[in-house]
Amino acid sequence: MEGGCQNKSMFPHTVQDVRTTPTLKVLTSERINQYALIRRIPRNTGGTPHVDVSIYKDTTNDKDVLIKAVKRKQVEDKYRQLRRNFQAGNNLPNGEQSIRKEIDVLHRLRNCPHVIQLLETVDDPNNDRVFLVLEYMSGGEIQWRNEHDEPTLTIEQTRRIFRDATIGLQYLHHLNIIHRDIKPANLVWSFDHSIVKIIDFGISHHHEEDAVCTGSSTRFYEKKYSSPSLFTNAELTKQRGTGYFMAPEVAWTPPDTTMSSPSIDTLSATIHTDAFQIPAKRPEITKAIDVWALGVTLYCFLFGKFPFQITSDGNDNQHHTRYMLFREICTSDWMIPDTMSANNLPTGGRVAKTHSEVIHLLDCMLRKDPNTRIGIAGVKVSGHSLFSLSDLQLIPL
């Protein structure tokens, strides 16, 4: 391995060991151990029902932290347990398995200033929740469009966000971690908007057999959250993540799939001629799905809208809408408005010979075939005058 993921001199970044606390000494509506509640963060529409997120004050150092409280067992787990005859292997309920996966991933991410840091886990077996104490990024998530679906970020702001996200994603991929849900809502600002960090590793995946990093950041792997059976390749084929940002290989359905729905005539009438054919076999799910999602995110920042959208056809069935969106992602090309960013800079269009190099970068990131899609290292040295990362000190990979 060239360089190494333990080279702390590359960044002015203090790495602290994650504390593991096995006992809830204090638990009230206003306090968790030494953490005093500041405010609760409302769940978004469609948010995860078994997760509560709040901002607390660490009374030992007067610093604000974000605490994610995750239920060990979800309602679905109880029904599964009634049906299941447990066999040898990982018999964790699905909810607790998800917690362990997230903690396992977060413990690996100890040496990059563009990835959120886990500070402590509070895991009392006598309580039905596990508490993840994370650093708090008070600048909030990236706001990238207004009520008219127009971009609100300038080119310089987009460049800074994109650079930080690329460095963070490069670090994840170096550790063989696939985030699986890169999107604007999972990129957050520091208080002064000087740094962007990647957050939310709830569905992230780690290739245990490909581990490349040793040293202090891996000491936790001996503990109970780390297990080779936590991460399976079968898990990667599940359509997890946010629909608009899913890569074609994640959104894939067999090309001869039909919908057992009365709306099939409507569906046939609304699907336009396909620009791309759906492959007969699902392509392998790899780190390339994160590059695609980062490309969609970049498109959102530049144009204030998604590259793949569907228009209403009068059918509000959730499965129908999902199918239509996935079909759009897998078979349609994306278009480019005449201008980009809040600066209203000309783009040159989607296919014009004079289009800007940022369009070429999007072309490379939004290729349907993951085997020809640019890798994160290629994004880093794309050469575009605004988005080149060559002037940054990066993790030496």
TrEMBL record:
GO biological process: mitotic DNA damage checkpoint signaling
Entry keyword Kinase: yes
Superkingdom per UniProt: Eukaryota
Pfam families: Pkinase
UniProt keyword annotations, A-Z: Kinase, Transferase
Residues annotated as transmembrane: none
A single MF term (Gene Ontology): protein serine/threonine kinase activity
Gene Ontology CC: one annotated term: nucleus
Annotated Protein kinase domain residues: 35-387
Protein name: Kinase-like domain-containing protein
